[in-house]
From TrEMBL:
GO cellular component terms, semicolon-separated: plasma membrane
Predominant place of localization: membrane
Family per similarity comment: Belongs to the UPF0060 family.
Domain of life: Bacteria
Membrane topology, record value: Multi-pass membrane protein
One of the Pfam families matching this protein, by short name: UPF0060
Regions that span the bilayer: 7-27, 33-51, 63-80, 92-109
Lineage: Bacteria, Pseudomonadati, Pseudomonadota, Gammaproteobacteria, Cellvibrionales
SUPFAM superfamilies: Multidrug resistance efflux transporter EmrE (SSF103481)
Compartments where found: Cell membrane
Keyword Protein biosynthesis: no
Cross-referenced HAMAP family: UPF0060 (MF_00010)
UniProt keyword list: Cell membrane, Membrane, Transmembrane, Transmembrane helix
Name of this chain's protein: Small multidrug resistance family-3 protein
UniProt source species: Zhongshania antarctica
Amino acid sequence: MPELKTIGLFVITALTEIIGCYLPYLWLREGKSILLLIPAALSLAMFAWLLSLHPSAAAAGRVYAAYGGVYIGMAILWLWAVEGIRPTPWDLIGSSVALLGMAIIMFAPRAA
């Protein structure tokens, strides 16, 4: 079960980062309200806090590298679910490779 908890935490962390970056994008590129910066800042603060909750047994650099794989997968899902753009087979293959990399980095056996 620790694996599912780790992956779930990565997913929530990625979602907060994507939201925190997407809202300023809406303001800057789509002409939406500047007030979107308030939830964006809160989302990015939550993102930073969530990163601190990741397994302490893993080195920070290892956690950040593994998180990157989950971020890629979540960004492709965001592309589809929020932006309405269906991922290409290459998007799916690339995100699958990134997620496989995350699993190798996070769950490989290591000496204590």
